[in-house]
Amino acid sequence: MPRQLILTLISPLLMPAVIIGGIYFSLANLHQLPAIPNQVWQIGPHLSLALLLLLSLVFNRSRLFYVTILVTLLTGIPSLAFPETYINLIMFGLFPANVILILGYQERGIFTSIGLWRLAFILLQPAGLYALWHFDPALVQTLITTDIANIPEPIQDLLVYSPFNPLLSIILGLNGLALLISVYWQRSSTARVIFTATIAVLAGPLLQIDNASDALIMASAMWMAFTILRDSHQMAYLDELTGLPQRRALNENLLILGRKFSIAMLDIDHFKKFNDKHGHDVGDQVLQMVSRKLRQVRGSGKVYRYGGEEFSIVFPGREMHDASFFLEEVRKSIQDYEMVIRQIKRPDTEKSDHAERVRGSYRAAKETVSVTISIGVAQKSSRAETAETVLKKADVALYKAKKAGRNQLQQSDD
Predict the structure, then answer these.
(1) Over the chain (414 residues), what is each successive 10-residue block's mean pLDDT?
(2) Domain containing 266: what range?
(3) Per the structure, how many domains does the chain have?
(4) Cα–Cα distance for residue pair 179/99, rounded to 1 Å
């Protein structure tokens, strides 16, 4: 099995394993640490969930908000006068089923009409469960005591090791499979953190160690809160199209450069005409291709998207002639690269001998394009010179390169 495939399969499972293993080891050795006040276990989960609710509201992360509401409601279930088997059905059956549903949602905002309907669906479930227990206890008793007959032997052998009755064991297994499929399919940080939190919350009652559920809820809430802050930081500092750090990140980096550095400004030649001819979709592909090539720059250069079709590369500890060598390598690699574009659209349907089938958007590649870049580079030349001044000198050198015919590098005169 290829290494990349193995990493893809196990990567969503690593964080749940780290959190659950870490909590279990810590609680098992808690006697070796100073005594922790009981208030931590009583108040900690509620405070961490309240903080997470606040963050998900502030940053409008509706899926994480709904999962937090679910976990908050789940913490109150054991206090109700339900039999243990009914609580298990709610926790290991209904809770992960709701999470799977939330993973299928698109981010539509919390206080939109559809967001409020989703929230109402979650909040009404405890009332429905309470009403079902009080008004139809016979049905509840049937649900929690049902024994699945005529189960194939291989499945029966697996159910022997389950702490739950056969019905709940099968439901939990199907939920677990659906969770895995959802997280593998989406491959997003939000899906992974929801998956991690769900597994950690479900593992709490199974660890059979004091305060395990409380500790895992706090750890899950902190991990989800960290994910919200991390993703928000990336949205502020990383360009969505190219994945490069953007101008705000560059401005902060300029403040911490040392005594020797060089800065380059780069521009895609005639990009506006290129966009007008081929369209913005192809233009976006070109920006992504150029950013990939720029990432390959040697000499410890740090690449930023400055804005539009402009990029900047910072070379800490490098003089201008050294940086120019590495920049020339990148310029030539972009010049020599031919990018295939797909521009002939297929009809919506095509007839074949078998049936009329829907095709994709494009039939085949019919054209290749190439672009070039112009570069201006400058270095810090005096002790009092600031990084902003060097950046402006590089921009002046870039203008010289474009005026001299483009597809070339020009160094700053001073």
Answers:
(1) 67 86 84 72 91 93 94 86 84 93 88 91 90 82 67 67 77 89 87 93 87 92 93 87 91 88 94 87 90 93 93 94 94 90 48 39 59 94 85 95 94 85
(2) 247-411
(3) 2
(4) 8
